């Protein structure tokens, strides 16, 4: 057999297992052989990894492509992902009737994306719950997300017309009918927020910490409790997306002690690295808000002890001009291009988190949770999605080099140690030395990730 690609002289990072010297042979887009590090089999292309880490390509299970420039996001943001070592994303699809709109968004993604793309369904009204099973069957979408922060009045201006506890409960019952189904929930008790927010605005607060003060940790924890309780009663597997606080993490631990119903916990790189005291100002306005240093520390404890199960970026690529003043600024921040260096810098170097743990939380765990059966492992038969990482390379985050529609990064100016230097999608090199090859730019080859 002549391999298409041989990556030799690498340190293979095997999720949750460890780091071991080795080589990876690729044929027809899949991993065909795991070999001794100095193996030199005949191959069309051979790459000497120089003893660097070779890790499964990252699976980012939480991006919002289409929220920056809807017509081009799958092109720009996929390139940003590729530069960051991310080879698969699950993006949130939101439309009045997904049965009519999904095919169009899928085709747009396929035409533009240089990485593999799948979708979650965003639930904004009853029809989405009623058509969950049909969408799973027709489009291979096994995960939906319900936004408790857009309950009732709070959601009306954003098109969320029927979010209440009844819809949450109903969504759990329907999720149970979807093979491999999991319900994601955004947890913030929005009914309490105005009580806290209005006095802060009257006082004239405009700092980033005010954003946390209007939706503090216990409003997140209260929703986690509610979701866990309903999950226990219905038996529905749930996933708390972008969990941000110690208080909510404790609530998740309590759920796991009293119930066998799975509750996944996702957190984000920004909750693991930034606080409400960050000098980013409104650039880092995000929901749930950035918290305190104690919360950052708690989330890393959760990463180490297994309470946190996945890390997603919640990537929203908007322009700096929309992020000027705390109360009016747009929500969310870009992150898909910086997730890996942030986690290596903050986790591996500063806190001694094993790289194989970071690999599990950014690839294999998400692949397992969301039914991406060919992703997330360096093993024979899996897709040859790989990222080569120089753990000692130091670079300063510069939004100009991130390829994103967003012209800022909440991490801009930070010097981070540990960067991807090559990204491979199903055997094809889609990023090398912090640049996208011209042929990848002109002929992107991402596939649609159908599940179930
Ligand atoms: Zn999100």
Annotate the secondary structure layout.
Layout: E1 3-14, E2 18-27, E3 30-35, E4 43-48, E5 53-56, E6 58-63, H1 73-83, E7 86-93, H2 98-112, E8 116-123, H3 126-130, H4 132-139, E9 143-147, H5 153-156, H6 165-175, E10 182-186, H7 193-202, H8 208-214, H9 217-234, E11 238-240, H10 246-258, E12 263-267, H11 293-305, E13 310-311, H12 339-351, H13 355-369, E14 386-396, E15 415-425, E16 428-432, H14 438-442
Parallel strand pairs: 1-4, 1-5, 6-7, 7-8, 8-9, 9-10, 10-11, 11-12, 12-13
Antiparallel strand pairs: 1-2, 2-3, 5-14, 14-15, 15-16
Helix pairs in contact: 1-2, 2-4, 6-9, 7-8, 9-10
Bound molecules: zinc ion.
Question: Any overview of this molecule?
Answer:
The protein is α/β, with parallel strands linked by helices and 452 residues long. It folds into 2 domains: 5-53 and 383-438, Urease, subunit C, domain 1; 57-369, TIM Barrel. Helices cover 33% and strands 24% of the residues. It has 14 helices and 16 strands. Strands 1, 2, 3, 4, 5, 14, 15 and 16 form an 8-stranded mixed sheet that branches. Strands 6-7-8-9-10-11-12-13 form an 8-stranded parallel sheet. It starts with a strand and ends in a 10-residue tail after the last helix. The relative contact order is 0.18. Zinc ion binds at residues 62, 64, 314.
